[in-house]
Amino acid sequence: MSAANQMKIARRPISLKIFGIAVSLLLLMVIVTLSSSIYMHRLGQQLTLLSDYYIALDQQMSDIRIQTLREVIQMERALHAKPKQTAGGNDEAAAFYKQAGDCSNEPMRAVRAQIKKAYPDPGARNLMNYRVTRLCTEAQLVSANQLIDRALLHPRVRADADQVARFTQIKSELSNVPAAREKLFASIEKYLAQVHDGDEKSLAEIQARIDEFRLDGNRRVSAMTRLIHAGTTESADRTEAMEHDALWLSWSVTLAACILGLSVAAIITRNLVRPVRELLSMTDSIRTGNLDIQIQIQTSDEIGLLADSFSHMVGEIKQKEQIKDMFGKYVDPRIVQNLLHDQRQLAQSGERQLMSIFFSDIEGFTRICEDLTPTGAVRLINQYFTLMSAPIRSRTGIIDKFIGDSIMAYWGPPFTLASEHALQACRAALEQQALVEKFQEMLPEVLGIRKNVPTIRVRMGIATGDVTVGSIGSEDARSYTVIGDNVNLASRLEGANKYYRTQILISEDTCKLAGDGIEAREIDAIRVVGKTDPVRVYELLGLKGDISDACAQLRSHYERGLGLYRARQWDEARAAFEDGLRVRPDDGASRLFIERIDVLRSQTLPEQWDGVWKLTEK
User: Fold this and answer.
1) pLDDT value at position 2?
2) Is the pLDDT of residue 250 over 90?
3) How much is the mean pLDDT over the chain?
4) Considering only Cβ atoms within 10 Å of each terminal Cβ, which end of the chain, N or C, has fewer?
5) What gap in Å lies between CA 231 and CA 286, rounded to an integer?
6) How many CB atoms lie within 10 A of CB 586?
7) Is pLDDT of 13 > 50?
8) CA 588 vs CA 209, 593, 612: distances in Å
9) ∠ CA(119), CA(123), CA(125), 5° rounding?
């Protein structure tokens, strides 16, 4: 039977089961959605009733009470002041009211300012403020009455006799308020008409009726407020009950869906879940590096086909890992990874990149090997390369090649960030120098000798600049490497250590790019073999803040002497270098410059002499 036919036969049982589960869950979701929609619709109507009518009416009653208080205040002020100036009639009050708009704070503030300007007399002014405030209150009463009419037309209210009765009662109470207010207004106008000519007894009777009518109006507004609060509370309780019912229904149907889903899942676990778990376990084993697993899944469904494909995939991964492990011993594993997976297009035609190049060499290695057997020499160099390679790789460097006892490495894109490669190269070099002492201690064990153990000193050079990087070689054999003047410069700097008796020399560009991450001292300006332009050379002393006080003093004396040397102030320069030797008697660079000064001071130098020293050895 072909694989295609197997797929057709094997896919049907699982697909039907999954389809059945999907249909069941879908039906349950439809039931939940329909029931929730019904409940949510009813809940929405109840919330509309609550928010659009009860809460809105309660807000309007609050506004009416506030306006009524303002009326009382303005009225009391007007009655107390006994207006001397005529306050205008209702038409003028209506004109001010039109300017007040919705009677909110800002428009009313502007209207009061106009009234104050039009009526200097406080009593007349308070009377006009009272009349405008009264018109605002009456407008709000009309608005409340309209809102109640709209509520009585709402389907949710009309379907509930209790709601109809409550809104009808509120409307009835509201309809009595204007009549009570008219009696109050009439009494106030009567009082104002007799305030100057009437007797005290008559005014007192009118004042008593004003207080009676005002209290009656307040009682009616309070009664309406109590009715509205009762309706609000009842509506809120109904809303909460409906929300509880909707939540209970949703959880009930959801629980039923969970029970059904778990039941069906339990049925298909033996044929579906268990093999999948086995494959997941094998995947975890592969992720941890175990490629020797045996896949024993023999089901006749899609899982069996998946297991077969998985087995082929494991074989291919195992083969690829073997290739990578084998070539990783000859080429950096990151380059091998790119070659195997083609995740990064390596430049085959070459491209310019700013990189940091590193060269190192064991001082006097040929002489050391003369006293060793071939086996001993191989053990020595293999152990040395093992130790020295670790800092390069841990600092994201690429080991390009081993040349005898020399190491060539580089840092730069795509393996190291452009802003970090110089500092990473310097860190790796310092870590390697620190490992030289450990390697020296290991030599007796490595070589199997106790006497005449050779002393290991390693010279290193680092140069930063543009190089050509790419896959270089013939059609049959290629190497991903770097070439260019700065590669040669790094090699020359490694050799220049022998001349200056230093350990790590770096170029000026390396020093600048590493920046505040390192401590260095300028050694000299030189012309190396193969380059016509001079380069400034620096000795790498350590990481920033990681040098001794004596080393810092030596650097200060040396750089002062170097400046005096370039200015041809031979005696002062010599004295500065001698100061440095008193700090560190074994400083080879200071001794070299003292010797150079003794030679140069006896010569006639040209006017254009710039202090650049030409190295004749590679």
Assistant:
1) 43
2) no
3) 78
4) N
5) 69
6) 8
7) yes
8) 118, 9, 18
9) 35
Give CA–CA dist 439/385, Å, rounded: 10
Is the pLDDT assigned to residue 327 strictly greater than 70?
no
Residue 291: which of 335, 337, 323 has the closest Cα? 323
Q: Give the three-state DSSP class for 282.
A: helix
User: In this structure, what token pair is assigned to residue 149?
Assistant: 């009419």
DSSP annotation string for 434-484: HHHHHHHHHHHHHHT-SSSPPPP-EEEEEEEEEEEEEEEE-SS-EEEEEES
Which of 29-33, 51-55, 579-583: highest mean pLDDT? 579-583
pLDDT confidence of residue 491:
93
Whether residue 192 is predicted with pLDDT greater than 80 in this model: the reply is no
Rounded-to-integer distance, Cα 55 and Cα 238, Å: 15
SS3 letters across 206-231: HHHHHHHHHHHHHHHHHHHHHHHHHH
**What distance in Å separates the CA atoms of residue 598 and residue 608, rounded to the nearest whole number?**
20
Q: What single-letter DSSP state applies at residue 51?
A: I
102-111, 299-308, 444-453, 515-524: which has the highest mean pLDDT? 515-524
What is the C-alpha separation between 409 and 562, in angstroms, rounded?
Answer: 31
Radius of gyration of the chain (CA): 50
Q: Which of 445, 486, 183, 244 is nearest to 359 (CA)?
A: 486
Quickly state the pLDDT bin for 141 (edges 50, 70, 90): confident
Report how far residue 513's alpha carbon sits from residue 356's, in angstroms, rounded to the nearest whole number: 10
Number of H helices, E strands in the chain: 19, 9
Q: Supply the pLDDT for residue 289.
A: 64
Cα distance between residue 104 and residue 560, in whole Å: 83
